[in-house]
Amino acid sequence: xxxxxxxxxxxxxxxxxxxxxxxxxxxxxxxxxxxxxxxxxxxxxxxxxxxxxxxxxxxxxxxxxxxxxxxxxxxxxxxxxxxxxxxxxxxxxxxxxxxxxxxxxxxxxxxxxxxxxxxxxxxxxxxxxxxxxxxxxxxxxxxxxxxxxxxxxxxxxxxxxxxxxxxxxxxxxxxxxxxxxxxxxxxxxxxxxxxxxxxxxxxxxxxxxxxxxxxxxxxxxxxxxxxxxxxxxxxxxxxxxxxxxxxxxxxxxxxxxxxxxxxxxxxxxxxxxxxxxxxxxxxxxxxxxxxxxxxxxxxxxxxxxxxxxxxxxxxxxxxxxxxxxxxxxxxxx
Amino acid sequence: xxxxxxxxxxxxxxxxxxxxxxxxxxxxxxxxxxxxxxxxxxxxxxxxxxxxxxxxxxxxxxxxxxxxxxxxxxxxxxxxxxxxxxxxxxxxxxxxxxxxxxxxxxxxxxxxxxxxxxxxxxxxxxxxxxxxxxxxxxxxxxxxxxxxxxxxxxxxxxxxxxxxxxxxxxxxxxxxxxxxxxxxxxxxxxxxxxxxxxxxxxxxxxxxxxxxxxxxxxxxxxxxxxxxxxxxxxxxxxxxxxxxxxxxxxxxxxxxxxxxxxxxxxxxxxxxxxxxxxxxxxxxxxxxxxxxxxxxxxxxxxxxxxxxxxxxxxxxxxxxxxxxxxxxxxxxx
DNA sequence: TTGTAGGCGTTATCAT
DNA sequence: ATGATAACGCCTACAA
Lengths: 333, 333
Hints:
The structure is a homodimer.
Chain A: H1 6-13, H2 17-24, H3 32-44, H4 51-58, E1 63-68, H5 74-89, E2 93-98, H6 103-115, E3 120-123, H7 133-140, E4 145-148, E5 158-162, H8 164-177, E6 183-187, H9 193-208, E7 218-220, H10 225-238, E8 243-246, H11 249-262, E9 271-275, E10 289-292, H12 295-311, E11 321-324, E12 327-329
Parallel strand pairs in A: 1-2, 1-3, 3-4, 4-5, 5-11, 6-7, 6-8, 8-9, 9-10
Antiparallel strand pairs in A: 10-12
Helix pairs in contact in A: 1-2, 5-12, 8-9, 10-11
The first copy, chain A, binds a DNA duplex (16 and 16 nucleotides) through helix 2 and helix 4.
């Protein structure tokens, strides 16, 4: 299966290696007859150029490397689905690595990709990435890279993100419009790029609607379930919370779960809005209105942007910033 | 960054290429002193052997190819997480492809992997794979392969699966023990290997508890949401269903959703048990007891099994069948 | 102990 | 129109 080489064909047909190579690439210097014979035979033995040999020569592997915090997550797996789709269509294969939110793994994933000589990277930063030397190196060495979702605070890099401010604003607004006054925020750690914008969206919306921002109603927490539990606990003890906004996909179900485990303490459950890319949010109890991100499109855009860069002759094509919109899905209870 | 070659080192140090190569591999023929110098310098310029060049020589790419129906799915993404973990630990990178349940894409993914010269495959069959010539070719050509979950009806191939019969049996049993008499089954298509065993588990459990199996209470349906809707609709029209067993991860939420949309027709909602790898099943409404598969372990086992094969000198190591257990998680409502 | 040369599969340059 | 050869980066007989 697909083991024939140019040399084999040459020998079988009595041509030289170079003639066969040229015939295969449909070179103008080769006679029609020869081309026919070579092509026919190549087809017969199911010849496929060896990508390894090609890579060695061209210094291109036609593969890209995707680095994400976690693959077992609706948002990221949908993004990867999109990347896969676009990359496949353009003849690229995709390697991927997970950081599991560890900075160290992010660096080593990058190293691995580099060692593998991938043509470029698509990445979303880990939850513990607080300095960016490794990324600056990428930039310095002009290695095509696209960031999505959690992007670094760097200028002149390719980014594909959603309008986090607006998404949060809309989410909080839906709570306000339902008459909620004591709206808490469960937030992802401030270290993530998306966090700041989302927190601002929350604050701006409250202010615009004449509700004072109370910093004690804002809980930053990590992705361990206990952290959400603790945050909810503190909130409930602090005030008569009637609305909760959860600004992270990774935190939504954890928080919902935490709330459910403590709901016996409450006379009524607060209204909840959260970022989520779960397919069937409507099946949740307590019910949650969701802010949905166009994950698949993010993947598509990222991959296309990256491959454009890779294939661009101009070495210094200027970086693009792509901004997509979130959408809101009200629960129907 | 990692661009130095052996040749560069040789030139810089005034050695020949082969001396450097040997020094790097710590060959016994090289003097300590030379080794030191070479190693030190290699380190300094951050030398890394080019995997492409290595591959060309060794005919090994140290990469494996994972082919799954869908990545944006809890079960599969968890499996991939496991594969990634194990592969990474053993120095392999992983490519992956999705079939989206299309036979054609399965074949082309395989071709792509082969073209890429991956060292082996891990795959779970698409929902439309009904003949196996492409897999037999793999076997004939002795290309290391491990199947998981949806495996082909072939002897002497590596498989990693769960005890589907037992999982179903336990699931149905939990319904029976709750006093349910009219227990329907929403099943994945019969074409999948897992389906038969799971249907048998359902039937066996009913029989063992003196409940007659009614074929009209069994609905086979595909993964489009409408199909679940239709199935539920027919079931409700047919009989006073008081229990539903859903034998597929991919069908569980769809069916739950379908039920929810039709529950206004019912005086009480049937008790539900379903295969699911969702992290927070307890948040679902209607509530669902879940049969959980050890997805991460499946990934780990599959990857290790595959890499064992790849690295085995014996060309004809005999295939293994790994059987893992499911677990049941009762909802607490 | 170190160097030379050939080969892995391909393309490209330079003959013929 | 076709062939011989070098080169990509590495390893490894075989020489020295």
